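Hi Y.,

Following your request, here is the sequence exactly as I used it, all 187 residues.
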Amino acid sequence: MTHAQIIHGDINTSSGRLYIAFELSNSKWKLAFGNGMKIRQKTIAARDLGALAEEIAKARQKFKMADDVPIYSCYEAGRDGFWIHRYLESEGFHNLVVDSSGIEVNRRKRRAKSDRIDAEKLLNMLIRYLNGEQKLWSVLYVPDVGEEDERQLNREIERLKKSELLIGTGLNLYWRFMALWHWPGSY
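Below is the corresponding structure, written out as tokens. Let me know if you'd prefer a different format.
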């Protein structure tokens, strides 16, 4: 995809907005910045908010934007949860968390897969979404901190129940192997 392909037909691109797409991984974040006409991509260490602020300042400078320009961002929901969304919103960003299964993919041919390509694709889709293509992807509901903590507690309880079952089964098998056929509690 070339930089010119980010503009589709009659989409109104405005240099009065800074667009950012995050491609998140465990060790690094790929950032794709755009103004609707040009793209700038950078990689920073994961969860390095200082480096993120520096790269945003550099992008504003590169695109010749004022410090008060509105910033629109997006990232795919994943292992990092919603803390990133809360941080970006607190910094004044207009952020979207999108469902990764809703990202459009050309299924007719094999496609290359890299963080650079994915970040550029997210940036392209963010611009299209903000310019009216509302059915482009699924924007997720972001729970508040209390709701997210409750979800985490429920997941932890389920994980512990599975662990308990696995440990009990493992001990049962161990005792059977040691010829103590009836471990207490097993039948």
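The first helix runs from residue 49 to 62.

Thanks again,
Q.
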